[in-house]
Predict the structure of biotin--[biotin carboxyl-carrier protein] ligase.
Amino acid sequence: MSTEPPWPERYGRVVLDSVDSTNAEAARMAPELDYPTWILAHEQAAPRGRRGNRWSMPPGNFAATLVMRPGGVPGWAALRGFMAGVALFEALALYVDRTRLSLKWPNDVLLDQGKVAGILLESAGKGGQVDWLAIGIGVNLTAAPTEIRDAAFPPVSVAEQTDIRIDPEQLLVRLAGFYATQEDILTQLGFEPIRESWLRHAARLGEIITARTSQGEVIGRFETIDDAGQLVLETEDGPKLIPAAEIYF
Ligand SMILES: O=C(O)CCCC[C@@H]1SC[C@@H]2NC(=O)N[C@@H]21
């Protein structure tokens, strides 16, 4: 891959040797932000994962956060997790055979059925309006963390699964390009084409899966995601819409 694509217009870029967490840095930068900005760090001392979990970042892995002030209601901002998932899928597919990659709802990337990347959305706002949104993306490029949290989806890394070495800064340029395209699609055509792209790469679509929610488990056929990104399961009691859950295959 010799030619470097251009950095997308109207996006800033900050590259740090080390930080506590790129999402924490995003929150600090947000009040002064003029335009959406990618923050990449080569080291994170306190990376965070979804649901209050810690995220582990062995050296050489990818850690970046896109911080923006998109305005609008939280549900609309949350669609950007799917946009980031599609963009990350496309960026990784420049290096790795795309048939080995898939998207696990809501926004993990799987490589050979193991978790290779996770996305953490954090936001703040008031009066029902989003003030800022941080889309934090971690990709196991060189090594998977050794502490296995989710035995159903053991962490894997690109290097260990494929022998392919990806430079984090090079991946960022490609990811930022694909992400900017997703924003253009959202502006011009709405969420529907993004929903369709996400579904094309979805893991286990049409199969029976288990969603573990705060109210218990729901088992059903993974039919689709709706226009708010909710999981739609066809269960014995009819269709169920699930806004938040961990899913198991
Ligand atoms: O739990 C998950 O699946 C989401 C993990 C997200 C990790 C990334 S690494 C870059 C950004 N900064 C953080 O502190 N977390 C996210």
